[in-house]
Amino acid sequence: MKIKFIVSYFYPQKAAGANRINSMAKSLLQMGNQVEIYYLREPGDNTNLNETKKYFNSNRISLHPLSQRKLNIENMFARMFYEIYYAIRLVITARATTSDRTIISIPYTMLLPATLLLPKPGMVLDIRDLIWLYNDFKRGRVNKLITVTLESICIRSIKRAECVLTTNSFQTNYISSISNRVKIFTISNGVSDENFHSLSSSVSDINPKFTVTYAGTIGYPQGLIVLAVAAKILQDVGLPIKVIVVGTGKELKLLTEYSKANNLENIQFIQPVGKIKLLDIYKGSSLLFAHLRTSESLNSAVPSKLYEYLATGLPVLYGGGHASVEALSEFENIYLFPQDDPSGLADSLIEAYNSRNNIRYSDKNISIIKQKYIRENIFNNSLNRLLYNKE
Predict the structure, then answer these.
(1) pLDDT at residue number 174
(2) Which residue of 47, 83, 146, 181 lies most exposed, with the fewest beta carbons within 10 A?
């Protein structure tokens, strides 16, 4: 069977959703399928395509990157037209070839509306996030109009699909409320088998020097200002808790300026690092931190970052919406705090610090990840049902 992907990012890019598509492509290749990848190449990315093919160890994969120009404009409308332009170009390029199935994976916002240019038969939408609702972060009549218009177009795209893939039951229920005709498969987020083995062997005990680490995107949805403000509270009361933030994004400047303005000595910012260095940072951590802002559009999100954290065996400190909190309910060593609440976060950190001698490395969490959340295993089972109606 010939499977065509139209995606925003692909290996070796580390952007949102790339790891999910990498694992999905690997599974399809192992099942004997021919795989075509149409994806957007980040500005300045000169990756040798032969190196990418070596990573997948197959001559049945063909790569079709579309290079993007760098955009240094923060204006929302300019960025939207930028995304529309490249999404349409990518879809038109991919439309030139035929396939048995075409899998379109977001979160690149405008890829979903651009699917209106594709034929309906064999179209599969991989909905990682309800991105068309993300404009609820911004207030005002114009933004509300954009949100309503975008949601209407995305809903139309979903109704045209033969099948929709979601990551959790909250998203599944939302898609079901839009259309009772479209087939829906829930394919959970998780970690790749390769990453699991690295993560699960990287940490053997809790660092007694209390260190809280965040690694990932520093954007508006993550709301990491809550961590910076909590760090100030902890510094003011004199607790020796160190905070490490690894990554980059649109709100990094906000965090560094806040840290400088308040003379914070207990928070360290590190630019994105390679896998080996990141494992070393995890090894020196006591708690791993994640957060999503309070938002209707984020209530259904379950960040794959949580599964990466859990695979280390370290405790997880989290503030997030209903779907992610429910997903964490089967794990131990989870510290929850109210979203967007620096004081609540500081209280949770103080509680964890005061009970630090009782915090334990969790073999149970690693075992659950191994049994239920290895991406390749999840995809092998789900894609067999999707493509061949096999259980």
Answers:
(1) 86
(2) 181
For the sheet with 242-246, list strands across it. Answer: 267-270, 242-246, 211-215, 287-291, 316-319, 334-336
Beta strands 334-336 and 267-270: pairing type? unpaired
What gap in Å lies between CA 103 and CA 118, rounded to an integer? 11
Whether the per-residue pLDDT at 220 is higher than 80: the answer is: yes
For residues 264 and 230, is the Cβ–Cβ distance under 8 A? Answer: no
Instruction: Supply the angle between the helices 141-160 and 169-178 in degrees, to the nearest 10.
Output: 80
Decide if pLDDT at 74 tops 80.
no
* CA 204, 206, 208, 214 torsion-angle sign: positive
- Tally of residues, the chain: 391
Residue that wins the pLDDT comparison between 195 and 77: 195
Q: Please name which of 328, 348, 122, 68 lies closest in space to residue 226, comparing C-alpha atoms.
A: 348
Distance CA 231, CA 346 (A): 7
pTM for the full model?
Answer: 0.84
| CATH architecture type of domain 2-190+374-388 | 3-Layer(aba) Sandwich (3.40)
SS3 134: helix
Domain ranges in the chain are 2-190+374-388, 193-371
Q: Which CATH superfamily is domain 193-371 in?
A: Glycogen Phosphorylase B; (3.40.50.2000)
